Amino acid sequence: MKLRPVSTVDALAAALRRRVLSGEIPPGTALPEQELGTLYGVARPTVREALALLVHEGLLRRERNRSAYVPEVTSTDLDDLMYVRRPLEDLMAVRLAGRRVPRADSALTRMAALERDAPWADVVAEHMTLHEELIVAVGSPRLERLYGVLAAETRLGLVRLRTVYPDRATLVAEHRHLLDAIARGPAEAARAAVAAHLDHTWGDE
């Protein structure tokens, strides 16, 4: 297996992504190109490209005559996000009831294996992967695309869960219950488990 060389742009984008998704760079924080260039020892065009990648992913926002910044996802935003996610994941529950999804199980195994001091970004990554693998397993490209549109806001919302789940074992247990309920079925039980799983607090503003 050949390793793909990582460019300086990709490395910087990865470092910033990790800090955003760990909550180290909080919502509303501006990211001036000059300051980042000095901090990471890279040229300003490199910073500009890295920021453009994260803006494209939806993790940063850029407005005219303003530095890129981490957008704030409010409780109202998250309520609306879940309003849209619920019917999509309900469709998933109906289709997958009675089936196990090995790739989702693998994401949960990796989440459970994370060190206690692992960055929250690693938890976010496995959390997102688990839910995305369930959606992919449905086999509907359109459902997958619709779910993908919500990915950036979902990831930013998951940053807030680090205060809700100081003990990651609870988060792991909840997802194990979810996957087991879907695998057992029947459809109505799987739907109820998904609905209960998505009905949680996102922490304080």
Topology:
Layout: H1 8-21, E1 30-31, H2 33-40, H3 44-57, E2 68-69, H4 75-96, H5 102-113, H6 120-138, H7 141-149, H8 151-159, H9 168-184, H10 187-198
Antiparallel strand pairs: 1-2
Helix pairs in contact: 1-3, 1-6, 2-3, 4-6, 4-10, 5-6, 5-9, 6-7, 6-8, 9-10
Any overview of this molecule?
With 205 residues, the chain is mainly alpha-helical. Helix content is 66%, strand content 2%. The protein has helices at residues 8-21, 33-40, 44-57, 75-96, 102-113, 120-138, 141-149, 151-159, 168-184, 187-198, and strands at 30-31, 68-69. A two-stranded antiparallel ribbon has the order 1-2. The relative contact order is 0.14.
Q: How many helices?
A: 10
Protein structure class: mainly alpha
Describe the largest sheet.
Answer: 2 strands, antiparallel
Summed over residues and divided by their number, the pLDDT gives a mean of 90
Tell me what portion of residues adopts beta-strand conformation: under 5%
Radius of gyration: 18 Å
Shape: elongated
Helix fraction, binned, reads: 55-70%
Unreliable stretches (pLDDT < 50, length at least 5) are none
N/C terminus separation:
45 Å
